[in-house]
Write the structure tokens for this entry.
Amino acid sequence: MTTQTTRPVESNAAEARTATFTAKATTPGRRTELSPTVTHVQSTVWQCNCITIRRPDHAVVIDSCWNSHDIEAVRDSIGGTTTTLLITHADIDHVCSVGFFPDAHVVMSPEGAARLADGSASRDLAVEGAKWGLDLRPNLRVDQVVGPDERFTVGDLHVSTVGARGHAFDGLGLFIEEEGLFAVGDYLMKSQHPMVWWSLTEARRSTERLLAAVGRFDPRWVVPGHGPILTPQEAIAVGEADLTYLEEVERVADEAHHAGVSPREWHLAVESVPVPRPCAPDIEMLSPRLLNVAATFRDRGVDGELTWTLNMA
């Protein structure tokens, strides 16, 4: 899909709102000890979730926080312990810890590795980090590639994977068997409704897979990319509501496509679908429903014009 955009003139209120959000990027997040071996750090911006698992001779870090202070605190908390970084997907707020762990072993999906190889992930991290006034060291790399439906070991831990493409071009759910912890990337989020950067159809399918995996794994914790950590029952309720929304968006988009309406009419029809829950304000600034509209165009091979510019800061 070719999306043409123009940059609107920001009002003073919008500029003030942006300044408020940007200031939060240097505010330390919240640290919670989930168990003697598992620590949860949640950043102030976007409620990004980072998990640390400590073993006697090894540590695992899952995803990151959009705050260099939080990343450094995670790094310092595990000292010089041999470390593996498990990345659910290569969006900026999930890979930004990589440069802070030059000696860690980085594990990612094949599609995530491709985003690093073509330089797009590093470019996005450098550009967006600068907007927020953050030095996030966009020196990205991947040391091990794992696909969906695999089971591999990290020290004495066993990790099972679930395919989770759709929200982004890449994506993996990661179940840490010994800890009962299921990191699902940017799905099943209580703090926001679905937001799709790549394929809404694939996001729906991934939501279905992740919900099935919650039932199969019966985890102790379900850790989405953003927002509260969930019980399995909470995750299922969130996911079922998300599926209802995604299915209705697809139905409305199919009707618009078959009717041959204008991109603007298509846009308005999809945006009119009720969302399962509101987004936190600093997520809403990313125009999530507009991103979902663009994803429906892309899934159907339709060129549409959307008057919109994304500024993540």
Residues 232-259 form the longest helix (28 residues).
